[in-house]
Write a structure and sequence with these properties.
This protein is of the alpha/beta class. It has one domain: Alkaline Phosphatase, subunit A (3-Layer(aba) Sandwich). 29% of the residues lie in helices and 14% in strands. The protein is built from twelve helices and 16 strands. The protein has helices at 17-23, 75-78, 98-102, 120-129, 150-157, 216-233, 244-255, 258-263, 271-277, 281-294, 318-343, 409-420, and strands at 51-56, 83-85, 92-94, 107-113, 167-170, 192-194, 299-303, 350-355, 359-360, 372-373, 377-382, 390-392, 394-395, 402-404, 427-429, 435-437. Strands 6-5-7-1-8-11-4-12 form an eight-stranded mixed sheet, with helices on both faces. The protein has a two-stranded antiparallel sheet with strand order 2-3. Helix 6 packs antiparallel against helix 7 and helix 10 (281-294) runs parallel beside helix 11. The N and C termini lie far apart (49 Å).
Length: 451
Amino acid sequence: MFSFADRWAGISDGVSRREALAVGGMSLLGGVGTAKPAAGAETAARPRAKSLIFLALFGGPPHQDTYDLKPEAPAEIRGEFEPIETSLPGFWICEYMPKLARLAHKYTVIRSMTHKDNGHESAFYALMTGRAHPQPNTIAKAAATDFPSYGSAMNFVRPPTEPVPGFVLTGGLISTRIGQNGGFLGPSWSPYVIKGDANEPSFRVPEFTLPAEVPVPRLHRRQDLLGALDATVATSDHSAAAGFPKYQQRAFDMLTSPQMQRAFDLAAESPTTRAAYGDHPFGQNLLLCRRLVEAGVPIVQVNWRNRGDGGLDTHSNNFNMYKGLLAPKLDGCLSALLTDLDERGLLDETLVVAAGEFGRTPRINKDAGRDHWGGCNSILLAGGGIKQGFVYGSSNKTAAYPATNPVGPWDLYATILHCFGIDQETTLHDTEGRPHRLCEGTVIADVLDRA
């Protein structure tokens, strides 16, 4: 049994490389205390998505100042920005997002996301798990009884066959760490968390790097010794240790995997590519996500964190923050990702989701900001079986509530599962043996590419 300084961080600074690999996203310890997925858990439909990149825009970007401007609304609602034409006729977005405007024929925007939770943490839980938090509008904290994150649950249902982590989270955990762990599946199904930022000159991931004093031959000798020890205890089918060898083998394979070593070497990227993603943590972490997908990691998430710049939670100075910093950053790195995936032939099989936990209030407050608003917001989807050049749903005249086609975070989750060919009727069991349906939402069928 391993002990952790931080049970939700994926790894502890004090554990060994092998222990870290056994915990973070690999699920090497299996579902101890849980039931396996039910037989026939995957759908018969041909899935398009083989990997997922989720841009978690924690803080809540203003839909009225990004993808759903209201130029005809009163000044106290429409704000300071002008809409610009995009490559999709009839679709207009913020003037400070020109790169995404030129790529609008490549993605779908949903303008009718809605729920009733205005708390950062509890609403983020809904976005990450597809379940409304039992204590909405609160600064909720991670708990062992939580529903697992979408990545943890998908990894549990369909773990990778290659020696790679099943779920990697870049940029570190955010806020109270809610919605970013294995929940009732246990910590062994939490994501492998990369705490550092990929734009740091000293960025490295030591857990995937053999120390100089342990060359590969020496590692293999240790592996042989461990195998001999395992053989002495794996004498009973009921022994918990009996299933360890295959997991240990995967851990060793990961540690010596050339593709994982290459994935973390951002120096291999051209200066032009790195510049396109942006010289900031979110952009370079997003570039790392693309490299991890290329290495075979099926699910990666990049968290937008507040690094002293106010982040996306613009209760004040909203318009200066967005035109001078936030909109150009998001516009640059997200457009770079879509272009990069497309040019590499990866977009068709890589689902990209860019979403915050809620939108912002229709009315601008006295501090030139917008406050939390779950009533309506916009999200972007691309690749992996999603239509190109499409707008789904609409908001009313003040962007306060959906006017057509309201959907919630649970419906987004159901759509993600569908793109991967995972049946949302799959049953998960918690540590008490209680059954839980994988997803309670409804697939947003109109955003799917039927070609």
